[in-house]
Structures are given as structure tokens and as C-alpha cells.
Amino acid sequence: MKESATLAVAAKARALKAQGIPVIDLGAGEPDFDTPAFIRDAAAAAIEAGATRYTNTEGILPLREAIAADANRVQVQGVPVTPAEVVVSNGSKQSLYNAVVCCFGPGDDVLIPIPSWTSYFEMVELARANAVPVLGDAANSLKVTADMLEAAATPATKGLMLNSPSNPTGAVYSRDELAAILALASAKGWWVIADEIYMRIAYEERAQSVLEIAPSRDNLIVINGVAKAYAMTGWRIGWSIAPVAVSKAMTNFQGHTTSNAAAVSQHAALAAIAQHERANVEVEAMVAAFRKRRDAVVAALSAFPSVQYVHPAGAFYIYVNVEGFRGAADPGAAFAAAVLEEYQVAIVPGSAFGTPNWIRASYATTASIAVEGLTRIATCLTA
Ligand code: GLU
Q1: CB under 6 Å to ligand 1: residues?
Q2: Is 15 exposed, middle or buried (0-12, 13-18, 19+ CB in 10 A)?
Q3: Per residue in 298-310, is it b (16+ CB within 10 Å) or e — as a string?
Q4: Which residues face 110 on adjacent strands?
Q5: pLDDT tens-digit readout, 137-195
Q6: Ligand 1 nearest-atom number relative to CA 168
Q7: Nearest to 195 by CA among 220, 163, 172
Q8: Rounded to the nearest whole angstrom, what is the distance from the C-alpha of residue 117 to the centroid of ligand 1?
Q9: Which residues neighbour 280 within 8 Å (Cβ) at sequence distance 6 or greater?
Q10: CA angle centred on 179, ends 178 and 182, rounded to 5°
């Protein structure tokens, strides 16, 4: 198993900062905002009210009800989601892993559109299944199409990982693109594990959930959490919405590994989800700030017309092409090392996401730091 490249870069940047080196950290994707005060207050009140013990493995009922109600209000067409389809975990990362382990096993092929978030590969391999990368189209923001997935499939294909808005590219799949992929998956009987953790962070049009497009939920496992939209990374609360049989399997698996997510964190997430009007004000302000940073970063890069990147329509990443950098065999890794050493900017090499000719920079930081970081990246690339 490889170390998580996103977490490794974050640790390296922290270590350099601790030595007094003024690193611009555009490594790990973590909102720089504080968790909204009303959510922190709800957590403090929950501790005082005794939320200090085990809960049901699948999470407290009010939180699962709130998650189901939120999905039904915003996304679900047709049969409403019930709390029995919701399992709360210690972060969307755990929900993704639970889903992968419960759906796939030895001999199964799992399609992973690349570039993709680093941990999908390791999760699939930990389940002893085969990760099958499917390279996206550079002319279409490195997104895959249903045809590309179909061409990569074999009789051993059992499912796919889908992620929109995308980490690491920030690309957002359109309704038509998702509909074609979902129709293919449904016709083939594939599981679709849809990672929608960046759903709320989209700048041009609203990012669509597979829940509002798929003809049925029978083959869908939809993953989300509070970390990115509500600036709650450290609370570790994620969840899945999946058919009841899959939800039961995921609960059983979690019951033998970690049990319930922290009780106090579940109450914090409950405040975020159940008090949706109050939370929306906060989420919209954070997304507006991310949008300004996105615009500032794109404007800064316009001074370097030879620098190519994927149009960042969502999430808080920009994916930059560093092909041919100093003639290196792994241009992204060479660039990451050079830009850290020579320009003190921490970024993640594209090899972590299956595409070594690229690098990922996170702009979940102040606009001035993001612009300075991207300007240094572009300078290093064009020097
Ligand atoms: N998902 C974020 C990232 O890609 C946080 C780190 C991680 O869990 O990988 O940077």
C-alpha cells in the first residue's frame, strides 16, 4: 500500500512551516474556514446533555432522518429515501471504503475514471479487487464518457467510482453526461459508488446528484459528508445512501471495525443538516469566497498563456498540465519537488491521481495566498 499522497503533502508542508520555512500550502484540500458557530454550539450543548456514549453503529436516528429529508428535499425524484438507507460513518472516506469492501472482491474489476482522488485505487485494492483506470478526455476537462467506460469494461467489471465535482480537477459532469453513465451502469448491472462530497461547491451551474438522475437507486451508493461544504473536516462525519441490503452490510462491516462515528460529531452534523436554512447562509458565503478565489487564480494564470489547466468549475482545486517538465520521467513529481524547493509551494503530483503529467493545487486558502502560489507555480513551469 502506498501512503496517501494528499495527506503526505499536508504533513510535509506542516513540518516545513514548523521549521520556520514560509511554505505556501496548496496541498491537501481542506477549507480554511472555521466550522460555523451555531454548529460548534450545538456540539458543546450535546456534550453537556450527555452525548458521550456509544450510539447505534449506523448513527443516531435524528441525523439519519435529517440526511434522508435533505436528500428528498433537494435531490431525490420518485420514491423518497428512508433513514434505513442511510449509514453514518467517520467521514466520507470511511463510507467509500465500506461501500467498496461490501460491493467488490477478488476477481472483480472496478472502473476508476482518471484523474481520480488518490484513495479510490488503494480502497479497491484493499478489497482485493482490480482497479481499472479509464483516462478522461483532455478536450472535455478530463471527464470520461459512457462510451469510454463501456470500451474499458470486461465481463469482470462489477462497478465504477464516480466523482462530480471532481477531485482533483474541479470538473463538473453535466446532467446528460451523468445520465448516459448511469444508464450504462444500470444496463450492465454495475454498482455505482458516487462520491458527492463537493456537490455544494460548484460555480457555474448547480452540480447534479446521481439521486436526481438515476432511473432507480437499486445499484447506487451515494456518498457525502459535512467536511467540505460545512468546513467540518476534523469532525469526521460522512454517510452513504444505499439500498437497504447494502446499508445493512456496510453497518455490519463498520460494527466490526470502528463502530459508530463520534457521538458529539453526529450532533454537530445534525445541527448542520437539520437547520438547513441557517446552514445555507454559511455554506453560500463560503462557496462565494471559494468562487472569488477561483476567479482570482484563473485571472492570475491568464498572464501565463502557455500554462494549460482544467477549467475549475467546482470543488477548490486547479489541475495544471506540467507535461515535459525538465524532461523528467514523472513530470508531476519532478515539478512538485522543484516548486517546493525553489519556490516554497506545496502541491500534489498528478501521479497520485493516476495522471503523472499534471499537478493539483488547492485554493482553499486566502485569495492572496492562492494567487501568489499559482503565480509561483506558473513561473516555475515557464522559467
Ligand atoms: N480529500 C482531501 C484531498 O484530496 C483531503 C485529504 C484526503 O483525505 O485525501 O486533499
Answers
A1: 4, 6-7, 28-30, 93, 117, 119, 167
A2: exposed
A3: eebbeebeebebb
A4: 131, 159
A5: 999 999 999 999 999 999 999 999 999 999 999 999 999 999 999 999 999 999 999 99
A6: 4
A7: 163
A8: 8
A9: none
A10: 85
Residue at grid coordinates 460491493 = 103
What are the two backbone dihedrals, phi and then psi, of residue 349, each rounded to the nearest 5 degrees? Answer: -65, 145
pTM: 0.96
Question: Per-residue pLDDT for 63 more than 90?
Answer: yes
Q: Say if residue 115 is preceded by a cis peptide, omega within 30 of 0.
A: yes
* Interval between CA 5 and ligand 1 midpoint (Å): 9
Distance 13 CA to ligand 1 centre (A): 14
The 8-class DSSP code of residue 347 comes to -
What tens digit of pLDDT does each residue of 247-293 get? 999 999 999 999 999 999 999 999 999 999 999 999 999 999 999 99
Structural domains of the chain sorted by starting position, each given as residue range(s) with its CATH number in brackets: 5-30+279-382 (3.90.1150.10), 53-274 (3.40.640.10)
Counting from 1 in the atom list of ligand 1, the atom nearest the Cα of 167 is 4
Ligand 1 mean position, distance from CA 269 (Å): 19
Ligand 1 pocket test, pick from 2, 9, 30 with the greatest ligand atom count within 8 Å of Cβ, gives: 30
Let me know: does 151 contact 131? Beta carbons within 8 Å.
no
pLDDT at 75 over 80: no
Please give the distance, rounded to the nearest whole angstrom, from the Cα atom of residue 7 to the centre of ligand 1: 7
Backbone angles phi, psi at 111, to 5 degrees: -75, 130
Smallest Cα–Cα separation from 97: which of 226, 238, 229? 238
- Report the C-alpha gap between 14 and 11 in whole angstroms: 5
Q: Which amino acid is at 22?
A: P
pLDDT digits (tens, 9 = 90+) for 200-235: 999 998 999 999 999 899 999 999 999 999 999 999
